[in-house]
Design goal:
The structure is a single chain. The chain is mainly α and 124 residues long. The protein has a domain at 74-124. 47% of the residues lie in helices and 3% in strands. The protein contains five helices and two strands; from the N terminus they run H-H-H-H-E-H-E. It has helices at residues 3-29, 39-43, 52-56, 60-69, 93-103, and strands at residues 80-81, 112-113. A two-stranded antiparallel sheet has the order 1-2.
């Protein structure tokens, strides 16, 4: 077999695998929106009593539902330091983790929320 044919076959197989995994990943998300569940329903306990392990134990569909159900905190309440991590759910979890930590920018990502906006800022 000529080398170009072998390369084309390998590329086609890789593209089919990527397309299949991406389709499965999208299906694992479930339908967008709350689907009638509150944060407490999804976690099985009040959010204030939840620990990171409770979120890591959720399926990808429930993590997405939690994302939609949880309200974002007010910016002014976020002063300080927080620890964040990627939640390893879904068929592409480890590929996402590899991409985020090695390709997007190696190293440990940290962030800090500060109330540095001008008093008259309207968010536009």
């Amino acid at each position: 077999m000529p080398t170009l044919v072998v390369i084309a076959i390998v590329v086609a197989i890789l593209m089919a695998a990527i397309l299949t995994l991406t389709t499965i990943n999208i299906v694992q998300n479930g339908k967008r929106g709350l689907n009638g569940k509150s944060v407490e329903d999804i976690l099985g306990k009040p959010a204030k009593k939840a620990i990171p392990g409770d979120i890591f134990a959720l399926s990808k569909r429930d993590v997405m539902r939690l994302f939609y159900a949880a309200e974002a905190p007010e910016f002014k309440s976020m002063k300080g330091e927080y620890k964040a991590s990627l939640i390893p759910v879904g068929i592409l979890a480890y590929a996402n983790n590899f991409y985020a930590h090695h390709i997007m920018g190696p190293g440990h990502w940290e962030a800090k929320a500060l109330d540095m906006l001008p008093k008259n800022w309207t968010g536009v």
